[in-house]
């Protein structure tokens, strides 16, 4: 039985990949730490969830994960005004701007694939349904509506689907928005793709063999084949940050006050 949507409070965020197509930035830091408006894109994603009441985060670390740990361990230093008394060594934090979040940072391995990262945090998720997304995409998706939709059906998984232009794989839908299959996109073809914002039952952990499992392959295909994957259509803004061009585009939107994903106050 699915939980009430308001009881879903945990979001797993995959933050361990190499981000090779954004090497100008990721040679120095993990991709989720690439900044938009002076804050990591990971911070933007977490604010999107927190706006809808999802405030417990489980971050799957890999490549340069220590930088993400240091960001949260020193969160006050990054977000608040401070006074440092060099004589006494005391630090005073003024007007604390810390978010009311609980953040669990889990080392899931540098070479672990997406499915393996999800399975590695099963103990931290527990027996609850949970959100899952990637640490490199922003959207104005209505997380509350996504959770309501997931609660309305009896399937194990819900995937958000979007219609961007570009290079992504296609999502094939059947009756009642059940996901039937995934395939590569043909030149000039348009259609729905995996938008990366999931709601999952803990039963999905059983579909993941180990560190070398890619979530988007066997586990998702198995869910689709078994009729356990429903699609939530998002018609609004969505953008992955895979290239320097896309990073600069997001920066421009933020700096001019036109960032569609900034749904929080």
TrEMBL record:
NCBIfam families associated with the record: G1P_cyt_trans (TIGR02623)
- Top EC class of this enzyme: transferase
E.C. numbers? 2.7.7.33
Annotated GO molecular function terms are: glucose-1-phosphate cytidylyltransferase activity
Q: Which organism is it from?
A: Parasedimentitalea maritima
Note the InterPro entries from the entry.
G1P_cyt_trans, G1P_cyt_trans-like, NTP_transferase_dom, Nucleotide-diphossugar_trans
Protein name per its UniProtKB record: Glucose-1-phosphate cytidylyltransferase
Q: Which UniProt keywords apply?
A: Nucleotidyltransferase, Transferase
Q: SUPFAM superfamilies from the xrefs?
A: Nucleotide-diphospho-sugar transferases
Domain Nucleotidyl transferase, residue spans: 10-238
């Amino acid at each position: 039985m699915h939980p009430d949507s308001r009881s879903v409070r945990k979001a797993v965020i995959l933050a361990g990949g190499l981000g090779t197509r954004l090497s100008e930035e990721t040679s120095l830091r993990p991709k989720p730490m690439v900044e938009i408006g002076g804050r990591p894109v990971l911070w933007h994603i977490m604010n999107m969830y927190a706006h809808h009441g999802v405030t417990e985060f489980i971050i799957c670390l890999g490549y340069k994960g220590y930088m993400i740990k240091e960001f949260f361990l020193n969160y006050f230093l990054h977000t608040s005004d401070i006074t440092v008394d060099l004589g006494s060594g005391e630090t005073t934090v003024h007007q604390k701007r810390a978010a009311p979040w609980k953040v669990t940072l889990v080392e899931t391995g540098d070479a672990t694939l997406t499915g393996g990262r999800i399975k590695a945090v099963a103990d931290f998720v527990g027996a609850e349904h949970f959100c899952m997304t990637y640490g490199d995409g922003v959207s104005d998706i209505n997380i509350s509506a996504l959770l309501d939709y997931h609660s309305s059906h009896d399937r194990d998984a819900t995937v958000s689907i979007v219609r961007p232009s570009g290079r992504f794989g296609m999502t094939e839908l059947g009756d009642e928005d059940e996901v039937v299959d995934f395939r590569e996109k043909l030149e000039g073809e348009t259609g729905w793709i995996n938008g990366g914002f999931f709601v999952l039952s803990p039963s999905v952990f059983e579909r993941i063999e180990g560190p070398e499992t890619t979530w988007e392959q066997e586990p998702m295909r198995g869910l689709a084949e078994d009729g356990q994957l429903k699609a939530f259509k998002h018609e609004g803004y969505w953008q992955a940050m895979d290239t320097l061009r896309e990073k600069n585009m997001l920066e421009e939107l933020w700096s001019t006050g036109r960032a569609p994903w900034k749904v929080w106050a």
